[in-house]
Amino acid sequence: MGSAGLTELSQLIGYCLVTKAGFGLLINVNGGASNELATILNQDLDLTKIQRKLTHEPFEITHKIGVMSYSSETKNLSYIPTSALKSLPQVIEEIVTSIS
Asked: How high is the pLDDT of residue 45?
């Protein structure tokens, strides 16, 4: 796959909404985010943090999405700074907070 785009982000958001998952990570290996996706995320700063009101328990849920790129050459994981989840340590902290 080349760079991750709006299609891949939309699929992840849809999956998170349907499953009521609080967290989602879009990690592309060796491709990063497309220029179009990076532009969208930079212009719409709350796109990766979706708050929903539900008619049943839990009555409110927040979905946080992280957009990241992994380089198999350098073994580095980089993040799009405008996504709601900016690092793996933050993801772990958010999960621990949500279950405690």
From this structure: 86
Q: Which two tokens stand for residue 92?
A: 């772990």
| 64: nearest Cα among 97, 30, 28 | 97
Tokens, residue 88:
């793996």
CA distance 60 to 40: 26
Number of domains in the chain: 1
pLDDT by residue, tens only, the chain of 100 residues? 688 999 999 999 999 999 999 999 999 999 888 999 999 999 998 999 999 998 988 899 999 999 999 999 999 999 888 899 998 899 999 999 988 8
Q: Is residue 1 part of a domain?
A: no
- Please choose, from the candidates 37, 4, 28, the residue with its C-alpha nearest in 3D space to the C-alpha of residue 77: 28
Print the domain residue range for 28: 6-99
The token pair that represents 23 in the structure block: 């967290």
What is the C-alpha separation between 17 and 62, in angstroms, rounded? 10
